[in-house]
């Protein structure tokens, strides 16, 4: 479901960018696009492009909200600190120590097996 919604969202984004770029510039701040003639100079075409842009903008907001809601209610864990391996609770109670993340990392960093004495 999420993949389908992402694909639809991307198609809406591309169409929205294309629709905005097709519209005639009315500001003329840069001196481009303010010409009198052209393919998109009729009033009816401008209204159609404006309505199309509004519809695509609404679709963009709807798909954005839907994607954010799907991400919010996804079944992923919230934090690494909240994840506890299955066997770690039994280890902590057998050893009588705490079951914190730092204790687990300290146990993993302790060397196992035969050690070579330092050279003198």
Q: In terms of topology, how is this protein built?
A:
Layout: H1 2-22, H2 43-72, H3 88-95, H4 101-109
Subcellular location: Cell membrane
Membrane topology: Multi-pass membrane protein
Keywords: Cell membrane, Membrane, Protein transport, Translocation, Transmembrane, Transmembrane helix, Transport
- Structural class of the helices, strands and pairings? mainly alpha
Largest sheet: none
Give helix % range.
Answer: 55-70%
- The total count of helices amounts to 4
Could you tell me the number of beta strands? 0
Which features characterize this protein?
120 residues, mainly alpha, 4 helices, elongated, SecG
Summarize the structure.
The chain has 120 residues and is mainly alpha-helical. The chain has four helices and no strands.
What does this molecule look like?
The chain is mostly helical and 120 residues long. It has a domain of 51 residues. Helix content is 57%, strand content 0%. It is elongated and about 90 Å long. Belongs to the SecG family.
